[in-house]
Amino acid sequence: MADAALRESPPWAAGEMLLEVENLHVRYRMMGPIRAKILQLPNRFLDAVLDVSFRLRRGTTLALVGESGSGKSTLGRAITGLVPIAAGQVRFEGREPLKANPRGEKSYHRDVAMMFQDPVSSLSPRRTVRSLITEPFVVHRLGRRDLDAEARRLLALVGLPRDFAGRYPHQLSGGQARRVGVARAVALSPKLIIADEPTAGLDVSVQGEILNLMTRLQSELGLTYLIITHNLAVVRHVSDETAIMYMGRFVEQGTTREIFERAAHPYTAGLLAAQPHPDPDKRREEVPLLGEVPSLARRPAGCEFHTRCPRAQALCRQERPAVHRLSPSHRHRCHFPLIDTP
Amino acid sequence: MALAASSIEPAANVLEVQGLSVRFRTPRGPVLALRNVSVEVPRGSVVGLVGESGSGKSTLALAVMGLMSGNASITEGSLRFAGRELLGLKPQELRALRGDRLSMVFQDPMTSLNPVRAIGLQMLDIQYRERSLSIAEKRRKAADMLRRVGIPDPERQMGRYPHEFSGGMRQRIAIAMGVLERPELLIADEPTTALDVTLEAQIIQLLRDLRREFNSSILFISHNLGLIAELCDIVVVLYAGEVVEQGTVRDIFHRPRHPYTQALLECDPARIAEIRRELPTITGDVPNLLRIPAGCVFAQRCPKVFDRCRVEHPADYPAGPAHLARCHLLAERADG
Known about the structure:
The complex is a heterodimer of chains A (342) and B (336).
Chain A: E1 17-29, H1 33-39, E2 45-57, E3 61-65, H2 72-80, E4 87-92, H3 102-111, E5 112-115, H4 129-139, H5 147-157, H6 174-186, E6 192-196, H7 204-221, E7 224-229, H8 232-238, E8 241-246, E9 249-255, H9 256-261, H10 266-274, H11 314-318, E10 324-325, E11 331-332
Parallel strand pairs in A: 3-7, 3-8, 5-6, 6-7
Antiparallel strand pairs in A: 1-2, 1-4, 8-9, 9-11, 10-11
Helix pairs in contact in A: 4-5, 4-6, 6-7
Chain B: H1 2-8, E1 13-26, E2 29-42, E3 46-50, H2 57-65, E4 72-81, E5 84-85, H3 91-97, E6 102-105, H4 109-112, H5 119-125, H6 135-148, H7 154-157, H8 167-179, E7 185-189, H9 197-214, E8 217-222, H10 225-231, E9 234-239, E10 242-248, H11 249-254, H12 259-267, H13 307-311, E11 317-320, E12 323-325, H14 328-335
Parallel strand pairs in B: 3-8, 3-9, 6-7, 7-8
Antiparallel strand pairs in B: 1-2, 1-4, 4-5, 9-10, 10-12, 11-12
């Protein structure tokens, strides 16, 4: 990896804080107390997100990375209010929108937009592109605006020809469908976009187009992104900061440069090593991370990663690691990190 | 006749696809999804078929398996498996090969596993040809293969149903079933696309080990260049239904000659060492296969296009001992 090329301390470092998440906790109820007693299960709840804290500055991008079941999508949904929060705080522009009265929440829903993985296949195939991209106005009762003009504006913004307004989802290519998804997300001029796997399933040539579009809109509209993905190759290029999630926790977080150059947590190192090299002379000789994420219903004691960790010791099986700071931005939860000193 | 000959002297190529063209009937007219495609899989090797969506990779796999949909037909060419022509075989003859000497692993294991039958029973079912083995021996064989692909405690797991396993475990089971009868050729169509990178690395390692142990040949289909580089010996690049380039894995990754292959490699963010916000792309769209362009299929999007490309379909030009590229630029070089 070309070390000098990794991004320098970013110019936005002193920028204004948009989103602050503190000790966020999301818990799902699996069963009632009686059933749990009969089944003799110690825990009738699933902790999908545990003790997550981070801050996101305006105009920057944070990537949430982890395997399926790590809680990254749940965290995204909890921030938008789609999933109830069990404990902790979500502060947006200094306010706590999820605790405010319903009207306050409505303006928050305009400020925060969700971009789903496959925006078109999850929407009605019988509706035109115009109807799909102007739906947010209808939902938020902003229908008195000139929707045709809005549709034209949005299509131009995402680089689709004007006549696409009359098309149906099945008439779109994969890349065009994603552009429609981007148009929907930016329709109400949000401040924060939470993008869940924005390029999963796309060919590499189209993936670049969508990421470039998101980057352009970020600078044109001053957007802030929370990108949920498992594609580390993409993360390296598009995000300022990266958080690695495992079983609901942030096991490591830092600037993208810190994560890629000075990974402290063995899980981060394993994820990085698991990426295939597009060079036949750099084949992996061994599998970097064995096994799978354990069930959330049977959360391992101590450090949750100890069941798969190549460095695990007795301490890891007994005691949950605390958060250790390596720099103002770089934090990890590991008893035996790969790097120790800042 | 051909079968008798091949059983004495095994063909050097497990699979030989020659000049294959596949046409789909659609309401808007015929779509030529594959045109004059030739691919060889030498015995014991892993051949990667790489291409973007719509390039025809899966159509080729399904044509080899004889599993094409009703509106598809092979208009030209031949498909030889272990020296024997597959085209024109009766359905029962083809069925005798499938699952035994020729098998396939799909992208989503739920499509190939029976959801209402325990996996142990499914693994007994596929051994129906083995008349000499007892049920207990078949069970042991199935359990051994499950253990081999990394399913812990297989005897107990065999009573469970597909939905009781995680996605990664299901794909391991599908692979165990695919290789249970030691096929001569395993076709793996995007077997890791639905999995996390950590599991993907485990599955790639598993395919490597299985190939080493059983000397099986694999046709590996993927749009992921990283996986192709990790696993394959030979790479075939498909674009809009045509093979535009093929060669050894080093030819393709270190000395790509077709502008499409070059552009595809340049787009892969994992190959871009320098951090950049603006990622390279291939501008334009894949041509509409209802109206195939007269010249080169890549001409509309090619950064190196010149007049000849728009009018004349390029031939396959040699670029090395086992390296072919379908591009006029190589002819220019040879002429000049």
